[in-house]
Design goal:
single chain, 255 residues, elongated
Amino acid sequence: MRQPPRNPAIPGTPRDRTGSMRLLRAALAEIDRRWAGLTQEVLATFDKIPVYALNDSAPRVAYGITPAVMDIVMLELQAALDRWIQNGKEPKDVFWWDPFVEQAMQLGTAQTVANLGNLSSVYATARSLDQVIRSEPYQIRVGLARIKSYEHWTGLRAEGQSRLAAIIGRAVAESTNPRAAARLIEEGLGVTRAKARQYAQTDITDSLRQARWAEADAAREEMGIRTGMLWTSALLPTPGPRMRRAMAACTRRTR
């Protein structure tokens, strides 16, 4: 008698359907660490601008700014942003976000390999996780994912530089008290940090899901194993809004 196909394994828990919460926590911790270092450097750079006031609590001060000083400040800001957001540009370096992309894709691939191996003896005999992640198609997918994420962080760095230049330029022009200006700088950096954290969740989830789809597609094309995607709602507890909706895909056998 023909054995009925087994049900797919739904990864994670109701609070972590994608099974990627640990990776996301690590990514958010790294982002927080980087923005803390960036904030410290930016504020130190701003403090280098000469201020002429007897009392730093005065609402208005005079900044001893010259074109030369402003050029130095802008160059140091650019260097700080490069160091903390866009480092690893040289071929010999590993871009800081790459490991998160790679881990998300390997996790998604592993979930699909495990599911297909459970659902199909043909697949289980023909493929293993090690074979998949060493394959050229998989390496190409990882490379494309790296490029996509690097372009995002490059754009975020440029956006952050533009915002900081505007804040500092306005503070100097309006003779804003240094303490008040420092708060504005921290708020501006907080905006880019929030965007970085939001992107981290999106990119990790998308990379994992794309890896699942890619391996399911490969199984269909190479072995004729037809699959569908089962979507479940996952509520992820994250800072900011208490809950966010994420979509998790699980591979199941349809025929």
